[in-house]
Model the fold of this input.
Amino acid sequence: MLLSAKDSLLLIVDAQEKLLPAIHQRDVVTSRMRWLGEIAMQLDLPILITEQYPKGLGYTVDSLEEIIEAARVVEKTHFSALRDDTFRDVLSEYNKKQVVIMGMETHVCVLQTAMELQASGYQVFLPADTVGSRRPTDKASAIERMRNAGVEIITSEMAAFEWLEKSGTDTFRHISRNWLK
Done:
């Protein structure tokens, strides 16, 4: 199945200040998150951000500042965002069937949220270049597990091109000017 911009919501899970220094390839991960988040903003997709216990782990990283301003931020304490009533209520307000999920850590909060979204009937897409863990083996194992559970494993560029659907539009021209970031 392909992504559709009209059916999609972008979910950024726990991309927080105190987690970031320990994340393997953190600069690549945050760069791809920012890039895809900016495209979601250009396409007016709803964006949700979760923060796991921000008093202890800090807030969403500064490099996503523009996206934070366009997003709805939900604080949580459960590893799976779906276990928090506030998150479930906010998610249901958007009435979207596709969730593109990115964030940290792949094998903990991203995995648990993705698996429960999938089990709840959402079509879940995980751009593998937009998630991170401290250890590469944890990330790889989490991605394999999510794939086996029916989560669509994609890349940030796959998501962008599927949302755009075609070239030749003003939106495509505007976004493609900065494509090679």
